[in-house]
Every structure is written in C-alpha cells, then in structure tokens.
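Hi all, posting the design record for the shared folder.

TITLE: backbone redesign
STEP: 1 of 1
STRUCTURE INPUT:
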C-alpha cells in the first residue's frame, strides 16, 4: 500500500515526495521518493516534525492501536503541518470503536448493538448472542473473536473491548475522499473475511454488485457526514443485511486513514487516485472514471486479478 501510494504521488507533475522508512525494512521500495531512514521512535518523531513543517501536505499511514496513528497526527499538527487526512480529534474518536459506535448511533446511523468491556471483565449473560468481541482500538481485524454465548471458554477480553451483536450479511467497505467541497465516495468493495478463524481480513474485491453498492455508498456517506471537517481518505466498514431496502445495514467501524482497498481502487481507477485525493483535499472539482471489469486484492496489497479493458 505504501509503495503504491509513493509511486502515485511521485509521478505527479510538480510534486516532490519525502517518505520515512524503518531502517530494518530497506527492501521496501518507495519509487520516486526522497527516503528518510529512521532507527528509533525518537528519530521518527523528529523526522516527521521536521518534514511536516515544510511540506504542503503530510499523509500518515499507521494503525490505530496503541495510539500509533493519533500520536503521529499530533506530531504533524505540533509542527504546524497540514494533514492529508483527518485531524487528530477525528482520529482519536474513530480509533475508539466504542466511542465511534456511540457517536454514530446518537446521530441516527445504524450500528450493531453493543457495549464496552473493561480488561478481564466477564461477558454479560443477558447480552444478545452470538456476538463479536473486538479491541476498542484494534486495526486490521486483529484480536477479533466470535462469541457464541456468555459461557464461551477463554473469551474474556485481555484489553479494553467492545462486545457487539453479530450481524449477518455481506461485509463491505467504502472509501470516501473528503475536502472543503464535500465528500467523494469511491467504488464500494466486498470484504473477504476468514470468519471461522476470528474474522481475519484476507482482502477484498470490487466493484460490489449494483444494489449493494448503492446501499453501501449511502450509508458510508451518512456515517462520514456526522464528523466535523473530515479530510483526506477515510474508510467505512459495513455489513449489508438481507433486506433489499437496507433495514439490516449497519456501520461496523470507521477507519480514519488509508486502507488496503487503495491498491484495488487505484487499479480500477482510470486516473491517478493520489491526484484525485489531493484535488479533493484542496477543494478542487474532480471527475472519476473507472475501468470496466473487476479487481481482487489480498490483505498484504497484492492485486490478484487485473481489470478488463473499457471505461465506466
């Protein structure tokens, strides 16, 4: 994902790209970038602040857990930089799955019924099972567990968690580009989850079928529209129920960052998706055109099936 993004930005006219790379991952290719290798957390923080202070935009790619994404966004803001993504306030909210669910529900956005659990807290007997147990600040489906009943063995959370009722349906995601002129939804994706092994994220495919795509887009825009001044690329994970009218559709979480679906979306997009993202953030009008056909991509970012020729 990072390599794809670096390649897309670096080929834009008049754009120079600086990128950070952990010294332990020198094999990671960042084409067209001025690469700054960092060897410690302190080195990384100083480099982010120094580069952000002089850059037009700074895009942070980091997971939400343990405050990784939030702390780096704060570093950019502290340096006077401009984030090509949500600000630290939105990131802090969206990084907490329980707080996000409460925020969305209070604004009329459908979410699974759920509750917060403290580390080690016993599962409630009177909850609506089966359920899903997830870390409050998780990312990439890590730590998610299926819970058949309160008496399930070995399921008590080892971290602050959210317990939510399992919602059957089609797992989907929608990436939304945001800027001062509003929101631009991208092609909805289907998600491939390894449900028997804890909902591990295996990748996805796009485009989603027509009726499902329309429902996913509508709900994703409703969710993102509840946040104050969203900017950049945000991902919305959803479950689309069996009712064609969408009565069973729910928002599972909001990702305040670039998601793996970027690699599939860039392959289907006729234009440079990084250019589109930048244009939306700067308040310029954009027109999106997509190739015909379909794309499949893996969790690590490999595109498994190229699109067919043609436009849409």
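Okay, here is what came back for every position:
SEQUENCE:
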């Amino acid at each position: 994902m990072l390599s794809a993004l670096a390649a897309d930005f670096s080929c834009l006219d008049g754009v120079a790209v600086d990128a950070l790379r952990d010294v332990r991952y020198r094999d990671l290719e960042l084409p067209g970038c001025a690469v700054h290798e960092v060897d410690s957390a302190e080195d990384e923080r100083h480099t982010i602040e120094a580069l952000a202070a002089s850059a037009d935009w700074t895009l942070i790619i980091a997971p939400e857990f343990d405050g990784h994404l939030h702390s780096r966004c704060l570093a950019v803001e502290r340096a006077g930089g401009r984030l090509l993504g949500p600000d630290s306030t939105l990131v802090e909210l969206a990084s907490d799955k329980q707080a996000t669910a409460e925020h969305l529900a209070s604004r009329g956005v459908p979410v699974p019924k759920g509750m917060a659990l403290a580390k080690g807290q016993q599962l409630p007997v009177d909850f609506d099972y089966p359920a899903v147990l997830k870390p409050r600040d998780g990312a990439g489906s890590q730590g998610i567990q299926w819970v058949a009943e309160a008496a399930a063995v070995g399921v008590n959370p080892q971290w602050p968690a959210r317990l939510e009722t399992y919602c059957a349906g089609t797992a989907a995601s929608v990436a939304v580009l945001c800027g001062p002129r509003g929101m631009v939804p991208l092609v909805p994706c289907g998600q491939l989850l390894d449900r028997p092994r804890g909902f591990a994220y295996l990748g996805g495919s796009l485009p989603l079928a027509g009726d499902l795509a329309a429902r996913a887009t509508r709900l994703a825009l409703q969710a993102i529209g509840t946040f104050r001044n969203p900017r950049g690329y945000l991902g919305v994970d959803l479950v689309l129920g069996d009712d064609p009218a969408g009565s069973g559709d729910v928002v599972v979480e909001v990702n305040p960052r670039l998601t793996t679906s970027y690699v599939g979306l860039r392959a289907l997009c006729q234009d440079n998706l990084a250019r589109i993202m930048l244009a939306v953030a700067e308040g310029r009008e954009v027109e999106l055109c997509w190739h015909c056909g379909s794309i499949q991509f893996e969790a690590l970012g490999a595109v498994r099936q190229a699109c067919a020729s043609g436009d849409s």
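COMMENT: The CA atoms of residues 128 and 165 lie 6 Å apart.
Let me know if anyone wants the other runs.
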